Amino acid sequence: MQLPKLIYWFSTVLLSLLLLFSAGMYIFNHADVVVAFEGLGYPSHIIYPLALAKILAVAAIVSSKVKFLKQLAYAGVFFNLLLAFMAHIVSGDGAGMLAFLGLFLLGTSFVFDKILKPKHRSAFEV
């Protein structure tokens, strides 16, 4: 397997596991997540829709069937992780490193997806 493909799949799988773990926590450990969200200043009624959005984003990023949905999933996950990172920084609880790791994995997955699937191919390429 070539190195760019290996890096893409490694970062994408780790990002997917991070998002699925987070969604699982939102669903199965709801009481603790409500306390954490309220501590960060977010309303608790967005927990279940956010869990569903994370699961759907993983499906869109991994499947690569519809390019528009994949781009939308990358954008949604980017904003989610960026806002999570900033909320943890502002609150000073020191828990923003997972969000930062997620941003790094997201960026790596996105860049190597673009490397592996270039938008424009040469007309003379076989």
Summarize this structure as a short list of keywords or feature phrases.
126 residues; elongated; 5 helices; disordered C terminus; mainly alpha; 79% helix
Structure, described:
The chain is an all-alpha fold. The chain has one domain (3-115). Helix content is 79%, strand content 0%. The protein has 5 helices and no strands. Helix 3 (47-63) crosses helix 4. The longest helix is centred in the N-terminal third of the chain and has 26 residues, at 3-28. It is elongated. The two termini are 21 Å apart. The model is unreliable at 122-126 (pLDDT under 50).
Short description:
79% of the residues lie in helices and 0% in strands. With 126 residues, the chain is mostly helical. It starts with a helix and ends in a 10-residue tail after the last helix.
Query: Helix count?
Result: 5
Biggest sheet, open or closed, and with what strands and sense?
Answer: none
Structural class by helix and strand composition: mainly alpha
- β content, as a range? under 5%
User: Termini separation (Å)?
Assistant: 21 Å
Order of helices and strands: HHHHH
Number of domains: 1
The share of residues in helices is over 70%
Question: Count of DSSP E strands?
Answer: 0
Question: Low-confidence stretches at least 5 residues in length (pLDDT < 50)?
Answer: 122-126
What is the residue-mean pLDDT, rounded to a whole number? 90
**C-alpha geometry:** elongated
Q: What is the CA-based Rg, rounded?
A: 16 Å
